[in-house]
Design goal:
219 residues, alpha+beta, endopeptidase fold (from Nostoc punctiforme), six-stranded antiparallel sheet, 6 helices, elongated
């Protein structure tokens, strides 16, 4: 919740029309290792969340791309106020997006309320279509992941499956709540992982998948 308190202090900060730039918006980038940004016209939703995270001593993406937040912290299956929410723009497959700090849902969870920067050219509270959410992230360092031993496949159960599910979720291959049951969601997640890493897409977690996961976690 500390990040929400920090963000609330910035409500109303807005872009300056014309050749001038709002020094506060420029500062969001300058103080979060994005020194090349020196104006308030470059899309700044991510720089704002980075600044709020830094002020709250939380992990940052250190990038101006909204979707960079999909690789920070841990997956928040059930979001709470203060989590980060990432939306897609134009297409779920494009690079474009928006990021803000989650505040809550409307009565039927079809709309997401978030506090963010570059919302109407200012720091504001706005609502977005829940169908455009790419993911929710909790800004805490993931606990030491334990990479499971191969081989695992659909129908398997146990602690090694739980480890696989936790690892896939961390890498943003969503397979739901880690429950130790290698079901359809886990099968789909490992197949997508295999496809994206040029592995045989057979749904079986084998040595090749393990090697690729280890490489990604070390990068």
């Amino acid at each position: 919740m500390e990040i929400l308190k920090v963000a609330m202090t910035q409500l109303g900060i807005k872009e300056v029309k014309g050749a001038e730039h709002n020094a506060s918006i420029v500062r969001y980038a300058q103080e979060t290792e994005m020194e090349k940004i020196s104006d308030d016209e470059t899309p700044w939703c991510s720089t704002f969340v980075n600044w709020c995270a830094k002020e709250s001593s939380l992990p940052m993406s250190k990038k101006a791309n909204a979707r960079s937040w999909m690789h920070v912290g841990i997956t928040a299956t059930t979001p709470i106020p203060g989590d980060v929410v990432v939306f897609w723009r134009e297409s779920v497959h494009s690079w474009k997006g928006h990021v803000g700090i989650f505040m809550g849902f409307n009565h039927n969870a079809s709309r997401v309320f978030c506090l963010g920067g570059n919302q109407g050219d200012q720091v504001s509270i706005a609502e977005y279509d829940a169908n455009k959410v790419l993911g929710y992230r909790r800004l805490e360092e993931p606990s030491a992941l334990k990479i499971p031993q191969p081989t695992l496949k659909k129908g398997d159960r146990g602690d090694e499956v739980t480890k696989l599910q936790e690892t896939l979720n961390h890498l943003n291959y969503q397979c739901g709540r880690p429950d130790g049951d290698f079901g359809g969601k886990t099968d789909s997640a490992i197949r997508l992982f295999q496809a994206n890493n040029r592995l045989t897409m057979d749904g079986v977690y084998g040595q090749g998948s393990k090697n690729s996961i280890e490489s990604l976690l070390q990068s």
